[in-house]
Design goal:
- By secondary structure, this protein is α/β, with parallel strands linked by helices.
- The protein contains 12 helices and 11 strands.
- The strands form 2 sheets. The chain has a 9-stranded mixed beta sheet.
- Strand 10 and strand 11 form a beta hairpin.
- The longest helix is centred in the first third of the chain and has 16 residues.
Length: 381
C-alpha cells in the first residue's frame, strides 16, 4: 500500500543552541524560521499557515506571526507538551488535504537555560496536581522515576539496561558537531552519576538548553518546487491519556500504542521497513516505554531490546541519531528536533552519522509526564 502524498516537509533548521544569553524566544524562532525557509527555497511571503507551541504569557501564534511579519490564513497553537510538533505535522496534513493553505511554518523556541526557568518553583497546583506537588514529587523527573520503578518491579528491567540508551545516544552525539555533550560515557559512568530521582541518575536525564527549531511543510502541489528533495508525511497519529501522573492508566504503557498504530496503518508500512527511528528521550525510561508501546518489542522486553548497544552507531537499530535530548539539546519541548533530524537523515545530509540508504523514518514525540504522544512516519521517493 502506498500512502497518499498530501504533504511534505521541505525545509528544516535549528537556531543557535546550548546557552544563548541576550537572545529572546522570538529571536531564536525567527532565526530558525529564516534558515528553514531558506533551506526550502521559500520566503516568509510564501507562508500562509503558522503552527507553534510554548510557555508564553500571550498567544504564541499571534505574537510569532506579528514578529515575523506573516498574516496567516490558518493558525494552530496546539500545546500538548513535547509532542506538540509531531501533532502539528498531522494537523498540517489535514489542513493541506482540505485545501486551507499551501505552506505551513512550524516553530519552537526556548531560553530555559539562560533564564534558569527549570529552577523556578511551580505555580499553584491545579486539580489532581494538588495530590503531587505539595507532597514533594519533583516534576517532571519524579513522574518518570515512578514509571521506571514500576517497570523494574514488573519486568525486572535494570539500571544497566537504561544506561545502554544514554551511552548509545552519546555515541551519536560524538558524531554531531552541534551536540552540547560530546565526551564519551560508559554504562558505569551513568550508574555512578548522582541520583536525580531514584532510579534515574543524572545521565538518565535530558539536558537543559536554550534553542529553537523550525519545519516547513508544503502541499503536494508546492513541494516539488522546493529547493531540496521533499520528505513526505506518510502517516501520523496522536493521543493523550492523562495530565498528571496519578491518572496515568498504566505506568508501563504510553499512548504511543495508539498513536503508533494509527501512523503505521496510515503509512502502510511495517516496523521492519523503517531505516531510522527518532524517539523523544526526555529520560532513558521514556525511550524504553515508547519502544514497547510502538510495538518494536513486547511489553517488558525493552531492556533486552536496547542492550548490547543495538541503537548506537553501527548497531542494527539506528535511533536518536543526532544525540537526542540526552546529549544534543533539550530546550524544554524537544519534539521539533526529532523532525529536523529525521528529515536530514532521509535527505542524506548527516555526514559521519548518516544512516546509509535511509528512506523511511519514524518520529515519535512525548509530552507532559508520559501524557501525550504523537507519531509521524516520513519517507522519501
Amino acid at each position: 500500500m502506498k500512502s497518499e502524498r498530501v504533504a511534505a516537509i521541505v525545509g528544516v533548521a535549528e537556531s543557535d543552541l546550548g546557552e544563548t544569553p541576550g537572545k529572546t524566544v522570538l529571536q531564536l524562532q525567527a532565526q530558525a524560521a529564516k534558515a528553514a525557509l531558506e533551506d526550502a527555497g521559500l520566503t516568509k511571503d510564501d507562508v500562509d499557515a503558522v503552527f507553534t507551541a510554548g510557555n508564553w504569557a500571550w498567544s504564541p501564534p499571534m505574537m510569532l506571526a506579528e514578529y515575523l511579519g506573516i498574516r496567516p490564513r490558518f493558525t494552530d497553537g496546539t500545546n500538548i507538551g513535547g509532542s506538540s510538533f509531531e501533532a502539528h505535522v498531522g494537523h498540517a496534513v489535514a489542513g493541506l488535504r482540505a485545501g486551507l493553505f499551501d505552506v505551513a511554518l512550524v516553530t519552537y523556541g526556548s531560553t530555559q537555560r539562560s533564564d534558569r526557568s527549570r529552577r523556578r518553583p511551580p505555580a499553584s497546583p491545579q486539580l489532581t496536581a494538588q495530590f503531587e506537588l505539595p507532597y514533594g514529587l519533583p516534576t517532571p523527573v519524579g513522574a518518570y522515576a515512578l514509571a521506571a520503578m514500576r517497570h523494574m518491579h514488573q519486568y525486572g528491567t535494570t539500571s544497566e539496561q537504561l544506561a545502554e540508551i544514554a551511552v548509545a545516544t552519546r555515541k551519536w552525539a560524538m558524531l554531531n558537531e552541534k551536540a552540547m555533550m560530546r565526551e564519551p560515557i560508559t554504562i558505569e559512568d551513568v550508574l555512578r552519576s548522582r541520583w536525580i530521582a531514584e532510579p534515574l541518575h543524572l545521565l538518565d536525564c535530558c539536558l537543559v538548553t536554550d534553542g529553537g527549531g523550525a519545519v516547513v511543510i508544503a502541499s503536494a502541489r508546492k513541494a516539488p518546487l522546493a529547493a531540496k528533495r521533499p520528505v513526505w508525511v506518510l502517516g501520523h497519529g496522536e493521543t493523550h491519556t492523562h495530565n498528571t501522573i496519578v491518572n496515568m492508566p498504566d505506568l508501563t504503557v504510553t499512548g504511543a500504542r495508539e498513536s503508533g498504530r494509527r501512523a503505521f496503518e496510515m503509512a502502510g508500512v511495517t516496523h521492519d521497513e523503517l531505516d531510522v527511528v527518532e524517539i523523544y528521550d526526555s529520560f532513558t525510561i521514556t525511550v524504553l516505554l515508547t519502544l514497547e508501546a510502538l510495538g518494536f518489542c513486547k511489553p517488558g522486553e525493552g531492556g533486552a531490546f536496547v542492550s548490547g548497544q543495538r541503537t548506537a552507531p553501527g548497531g542494527d537499530f539506528p535511533m536518536n541519531t543526532n544525540g537526542g535530548g540526552l546529549s544534543y539539546c533539550h530546550p524544554g519541548m524537544y519534539g521539533i528536533f526529532l523532525l529536523i533530524e529525521a528529515v536530514r537523515q532521509l535527505r542524506g545530509e548527516c555526514g559521519p552519522r548518516q544512516v546509509p540508504g535511509a528512506r523511511l523514518a519514524l518520529v515519535h514525540g512525548t509530552g507532559g509526564v508520559l501524557s501525550s504522544t504523537a507519531t509521524v512516519i516520513l519517507g522519501r521517493d
